[in-house]
Amino acid sequence: MKRGQRPSAEQVVLMLRQIEVQTAQGKSVAVACKEADVSEQSYYRWRKEYGGLKVDQARRMKDLERENTRLRRLVADLSLEKQVLADVASGNL
Known about the structure:
This protein has about 90 residues and is mainly alpha-helical. The chain is about 75% helix and about 0% strand.
């Protein structure tokens, strides 16, 4: 993975699985991360977020997060429009 590129959720799960296999074979986390070209910090952050997920579950989780973000923006926009209409109707604008 090139520096600066963010891996997809599926790639993260696969890298986590690869590192876990290598640590089970007796390698240290540092060595396994280095071979996977991942920093230890990223490994622990990803393990916290994606630990125990399968590839399809990680994909679904990211899709749901994107949908949630879209819906939050939509609600914020509609709330703003409602407030503007209420201000116009009451003569405050």
